[in-house]
From TrEMBL:
<dbReference type="Pfam" id="PF00483">
    <property type="entry name" value="NTP_transferase"/>
</dbReference>
<dbReference type="InterPro" id="IPR005771">
    <property type="entry name" value="GalU_uridylyltTrfase_bac/arc"/>
</dbReference>
<protein>
    <recommendedName>
        <fullName>UTP--glucose-1-phosphate uridylyltransferase</fullName>
        <ecNumber>2.7.7.9</ecNumber>
    </recommendedName>
</protein>
<keyword id="KW-0548">Nucleotidyltransferase</keyword>
<keyword id="KW-0808">Transferase</keyword>
<dbReference type="InterPro" id="IPR005835">
    <property type="entry name" value="NTP_transferase_dom"/>
</dbReference>
<dbReference type="InterPro" id="IPR029044">
    <property type="entry name" value="Nucleotide-diphossugar_trans"/>
</dbReference>
<feature type="domain" description="Nucleotidyl transferase">
    <location>
        <begin position="5"/>
        <end position="271"/>
    </location>
</feature>
<comment type="similarity">
    <text>Belongs to the UDPGP type 2 family.</text>
</comment>
<dbReference type="GO" id="GO:0003983">
    <property type="term" value="F:UTP:glucose-1-phosphate uridylyltransferase activity"/>
</dbReference>
Length: 293
């Protein structure tokens, strides 16, 4: 497997979770007992990536603090003999080689990815968005890296959604390939209406991109919402006859959407009921609670 780096954009304002995100980055909201961004970092590490760049903005220092060591806390847990919690605390500081760069002003996902150019250099890289948590039993990112190595294309993760939900996502126009679950992407539309969507295949927050995307982003102007959209740059790559092209990996596995409040709560419940230390106590309570509704 080619050694690549990962980029995690984390400079958004998190307005859907106000007032909780007034002073706390949305990426640090706990999902059971870990911040959401730690799940994303662990996914990258699970795919063999150990060099990770996090794009942060103002008031995001809690993210870098989380991945730093805390000698006072670690020493106290060591003195108490609380080795289980000590191991979990130290994991976040030892998990990977994590770097940070500021976006400055949140000008869109495309702008955030462009901020990674100096760190990434002339190599392919993965982009992982923190709103989508992929279950650690899935191999989506590793599969996408393998597809990129085989094709040289930009690789995006796609998932079938209900037509009435497609306006929340980028939608892909696709053609089949000889490989099951892999499609050629011929076009992308950012958050279309159901009538205008080319398919019900939604772009979810995983990408493996060639360095050529940086040159495209440099000349990509503001798009939908007045922001520089990564979707617009990928659309250009898909339409270039001599370019690397764009390929989609269709994912049908376990994904937890933390992008809005209801889905965030669902993600916590789904992950908690499968935990060995929580599930046995939580499942009977959930059944009893649901019966009262």
């Amino acid at each position: 497997m080619t050694k690549i780096k990962a980029v995690i954009p984390a400079a958004g304002l998190g307005t859907r979770f106000l007032p909780a995100t007034k002073a706390m980055p949305k990426e640090m909201l706990p999902v059971v007992d870990k911040p959401a961004i730690q799940y994303v970092v662990e996914e990258a590490v699970g795919a063999g990536i150990h060099d990770i760049l996090v794009i942060i903005g103002r008031n995001k220092n809690a993210i870098s603090d989380h991945f730093d060591s805390v000698p006072e806390l670690e020493g106290r847990l060591q003195q108490k003999g609380d080795h289980g919690r000590l191991e979990r605390v130290m994991k976040s500081s030892d998990i990977a080689d994590i770097h940070f760069v500021r976006q400055g002003e949140p000008k869109g996902l495309g702008h955030a990815v462009l901020r990674a150019r100096t760190h990434v250099g002339d190599s392919a890289f993965a982009v992982l968005l923190g709103d989508d948590l992929i279950d650690d039993r899935e191999t989506l990112l590793s599969d996408m890296i393998a597809v990129h190595e085989r094709t040289g294309a930009a690789v995006i993760a796609l998932m079938e959604v209900a037509p009435e939900q497609i306006h929340l996502y980028g939608a892909a126009a696709v053609e089949p390939t000889e490989h099951d679950g892999v499609v050629t992407v011929t076009g992308l539309v950012e958050k279309p209406t159901a009538d205008a969507a080319p398919s019900n295949l939604a772009v979810i927050g995983r990408y493996v991109l060639p360095p050529a995307v940086f040159d495209v982003l440099e000349r990509t102007g503001p798009g939908k919402g007045g922001e520089i959209q990564l979707t617009d740059a990928l659309q250009e790559l898909a339409s270039e006859p001599d370019g690397p092209g764009v390929v989609g990996v269709v994912f049908g596995g376990r994904r937890y959407d933390t992008g809005d409040r209801v889905d965030y709560i669902k993600a916590i419940v789904q992950l908690a009921v499968e935990r060995e230390d929580l599930g046995d106590e939580l499942r009977p309570w959930l059944r009893e609670f649901a019966a009262r509704l």
